[in-house]
Please model this.
Amino acid sequence: MQSFNQFINDISDDETDHLLNEFNLKSAAPAASAIFLMSQINQSSNVLKNLKFADDVETKIDLLAEQMLRLNRSMLAIAAMIYFQTKKSKRR
Model:
């Protein structure tokens, strides 16, 4: 059984490093954007549930402002996914 350092030395040639960098740059950014989008969607649904049961007007206005912020962040995540996907397709 080889040690971790030996394993790292065995896989640290230029081709593997290049392959790992390409995987990280091409795959991680759209995936991170998608994960962020899903979290914003979940939080947005929670805000809407709270909005249904809010009693006073101030609370409803605050929740609507929070909902608008969540939608803005969701659109930013969608824009990031589109950007990274088009950037990835142009490299091919």
